[in-house]
Design goal:
single chain; 469 residues; Antithrombin, Chain I, domain 2; 2 domains; nine-stranded mixed sheet; disordered N terminus
Length: 469
């Protein structure tokens, strides 16, 4: 890291943050009031133009993306040079795809158990979580920890070493990353440290290189840094989570806060016609309510089914997909989540229980959100030491003071309309050809609680249950 560059980036425009910060005395034993691994996926139709304002000293600056861009023939005078670079790019893409598939295979138990753990609620409210959010956030925590604190997270992800995890995260990251100016999935990470805390330089470099994370120092808990973190989050989430990012309020005892974001933009491959919208009844757990349904009549598509559900998959222009999974009559979303067959479907390239059919599809327009605590669920899944003030081991970041996580909260918001999808999440821990037209016709009306999943390269970005559209 060029120290001059770091120093130059350490002092930036503070006009967006309060100048009324005051220094607070830290306790001898520090703890993390909010150690956040924030992964936000926001599917928006344009990227806002926002100034990047960070009122904190830069320790490390995130590495540039190492993803090779597809060579454009127009940029080459020599066709052989272009072909050579194109072949190299194509081989690289194949390797990334293969590595990502291997990663998803290893992570399937985590995705499945986590979805049942965090979505299977007894109430009537909507429940949402972002598996990829929790995965990348927790992976970054492994860089700060050692011993059993690290081992428990590695075991959760089915990897044997931190080096293996880095390769796994890299494959998932590169498979999720896309920015062509229209369809976007851009990721960013940051770590915030208390001013005066001694830190391990190698750990900071690892975060910058393997996780593209920038590291900053400041008076955590002060209004100045709260505002700076909020501005960083708002900038990297397109303002979709502004209500949350404008209310960052770290405890004065906070020594470390880690954030990660992903900004995602896509439209349906085949948009809904607003003129086909209807008002109809959605059967919520609390009784019947009126909702606006988007409709496709006799749409030719694959119809998927399992022992307890029916499903369809709608393609997005960036190659991602959104699944709509409706429990069969007599079953609930909890039954489908517990069975786990739906997860095999969304993660597999080829699901045998599939028919090419004409589908009369009705999907309610929705804007759903939820905030859940992941702490208890993660502890039940075996990640316990990082939450204990007696067993946590964060020595990979500092040997000065003991550190432990005090919370793991995730907020998620997902919206769909005729054009596409918008979604965002943060965690605190703080498809082309067309076959012959089919003859079979089926109605799939999502007029009662259902499950959805948003995936990229079979990587589950968001999963949720909609009880109240």
């Amino acid at each position: 890291m060029n120290e001059k560059v770091a120093k130059a980036l350490s002092y930036v425009d503070e006009k967006y943050v309060s100048a009324a910060a005051r220094k607070k005395k830290k306790k001898a034993r520090y703890f993390i009031s909010v150690v956040a691994a924030v992964l936000v996926l926001a599917i928006l139709f344009h990227l806002p133009s926002m100034p990047m304002v960070i009122s904190a000293k830069a320790v490390s600056i995130a590495s540039e993306s190492r993803q090779m861009q597809r060579p454009d023939r127009d940029d080459y005078e020599d066709v052989y040079a272009w072909r050579e670079d194109f072949n190299r790019w194509e081989e690289g893409q194949k390797q990334i795809s293969n590595d990502a598939r291997d990663a998803v295979t290893a992570l399937t138990p985590f995705f499945l158990t986590g979805s049942e753990q965090f979505l299977n609620t007894s109430g009537s409210e909507n429940a949402l979580w972002s598996p990829i959010n929790a995965y990348i956030g927790l992976s970054m925590v492994t860089e700060l920890t050692d011993g059993a604190s690290r081992r428990q997270i590695l075991d959760l992800f089915g990897v044997g070493s931190i080096d293996e995890l880095r390769r796994q995260v890299g494959a998932v990251w590169e498979s999720s990353y896309n920015d062509n100016g229209h369809e976007i999935s851009a990721l960013a990470n940051s770590l915030w440290l208390e001013e005066g805390l001694n830190y391990n330089r190698d750990t900071m470099d690892n975060l910058a290189y393997y996780y593209y994370a920038s590291v900053y120092r400041g008076d955590l808990g002060s209004q100045k840094i709260n505002n700076a973190i909020g501005a960083w989050l708002n900038n990297n989430t397109g303002g979709l989570l502004k209500n949350a990012s404008d209310n960052i309020n770290l405890s004065p005892d906070t020594i470390l806060a880690l954030y990660s974001t992903i900004y995602f933009q896509a439209k349906w491959q085949d948009q809904f016609n607003q003129g086909n919208n209807t008002k109809d009844v959605f059967h919520t757990p609390d009784g019947d309510k009126t909702a606006t349904f988007m409709n496709k009549k006799l749409a030719q598509m694959n119809y998927y089914y399992g022992d307890k559900f029916s499903a369809v998959r709608l393609g997005l222009k960036n190659g991602s997909s959104m699944w709509f999974i409706l429990p069969d009559e007599g079953y609930t979303t909890a039954d489908v989540l517990a069975d786990g067959q739906y997860m095999q479907m969304v993660l597999q390239q080829n699901w045998e229980n599939t028919k090419w059919m004409k589908v009369n599809l009705s999907v309610p327009k929705f804007d759903v959100n939820s905030t859940i605590s992941l702490k208890d669920g993660l502890q039940e899944m075996g990640v316990t030491d990082v939450f204990s003030n007696t067993t946590s081991n964060f020595t990979e970041i500092t040997g000065d003071v003991p550190i432990y996580l005090t919370a793991a909260n995730q907020s998620v918001r997902v919206q769909i309309d005729e054009e596409g999808v918008k979604a965002a999440a943060y965690i605190e821990f703080p498809g082309a050809g067309s076959p012959e037209p089919p003859e079979e016709i089926i109605d799939l009306v999502l007029d009662r609680p259902f499950i959805f999943a948003i995936t990229t390269e079979s990587i589950p970005l968001f999963i949720g249950t909609v009880n109240q559209p």
